[in-house]
Amino acid sequence: MSLSDDSRYLKGGPVAQRIIAAVREDAAIAKAEGFPPKLISITVGDTAAVDVYVRNQRAKAQLAGIDFEERRFPATITSGELEAAIHGLNADPRVTGIIIQRPVPAHIPVRTLQAAVHPLKDVEGMHPASIGNIVYNQLDLAPCTAAASVELLRETGLDLKGLEVVIVGHSEIVGKPIAFLLMSEGATVTVCHHMTRSVAAHARRADALFVAVGKPRLIKADMVKPGAAVIDIGINSEIGPDGSSRIVGDVDTESVREVASWITPVPGGVGPITVAILLRNTMVALSRQRALYEATYGTADRLAAE
Ligand SMILES: Nc1nc(=O)c2c([nH]1)NC[C@@H]1CN(c3ccc(C(=O)N[C@@H](CCC(=O)O)C(=O)O)cc3)C=[N+]21
């Protein structure tokens, strides 16, 4: 059996395609009604993982019928200049959503940038007000990678209620939001990070293990409970044996697949769903903006109103 046919592989492609097909229908209707969705990506400096992400955002946005524009800024830009650019996008009625690609250079406080994005245009759910909503179990616009990881876990059919979940990595954008999403689904959640005494001891107890730390092959077979679901969120660029660059996750997939019942490949796992959810979030943002517009102007048809 070839690796790609192995039923243990939880593939993201089919899930992403389903989401994108639904977004495409929504986007076509919104466009016909005078509300074309438009997504703006902000990149500061140069990062390999960001390039992969943005390339796929552009391709899938085009497939879904969402306008996509990338704004690139040099790493030397000031925080004030970036905030001004974001305020300009907030004020532009043609712009539906704004995503700030991470990481940003060290001299720029990323939280200030996230807070500058208007919450109605915050398609990543990273504004402090948006991310706070997931504490209140309001989950319809969650950070994309976290939501994508949970979506893949659902594909296993495992009952999330009472499930023993261990998350390795406690970032604002992945580990922490996954913990909140799964708590609201009834899972029992343990979060490990760089100060955790024995990551292995925790990881071995997990029915579902999420890994998002950015360390190639960190998770080995002896850290995984037999029959577990392993969700690999790492996106690391490596130089392969043939000298070309490739992406690998945080899990030693070759050995872990002998122990786990489900494992997500990299590439082809969480990544494609992340992109699809970003597009879906753009449509959620658009519908919130439309609701506000219609409450203000009393019509569903922006073109008719003008
Ligand atoms: N604010 C912010 N939010 C993010 O979610 C975020 C970010 N910044 N910065 C960079 C990382 C990285 N990331 C990826 C998402 C999808 C793929 C992806 O589509 N991967 C595909 C394609 C791989 C390929 O084309 O080679 C796959 O895994 O199969 C990759 C990388 C999101 N990130």
TrEMBL record:
Which GO terms are recorded in the biological process aspect for this UniProt protein? Answer: L-histidine biosynthetic process; methionine biosynthetic process; purine nucleotide biosynthetic process; tetrahydrofolate interconversion
GO CC, sorted alphabetically, is: cytosol
- GO molecular function per UniProt: methenyltetrahydrofolate cyclohydrolase activity; methylenetetrahydrofolate dehydrogenase (NADP+) activity
Catalytic reaction(s) noted? (6R)-5,10-methylene-5,6,7,8-tetrahydrofolate + NADP(+) = (6R)-5,10-methenyltetrahydrofolate + NADPH; (6R)-5,10-methenyltetrahydrofolate + H2O = (6R)-10-formyltetrahydrofolate + H(+)
Where does the source fall among the domains of life? Answer: Bacteria
Q: In which pathway does it act?
A: One-carbon metabolism; tetrahydrofolate interconversion
Q: Any idea what job this protein has?
A: Catalyzes the oxidation of 5,10-methylenetetrahydrofolate to 5,10-methenyltetrahydrofolate and then the hydrolysis of 5,10-methenyltetrahydrofolate to 10-formyltetrahydrofolate.
Its protein name is Bifunctional protein FolD
Organism of this sequence: Mesorhizobium kowhaii
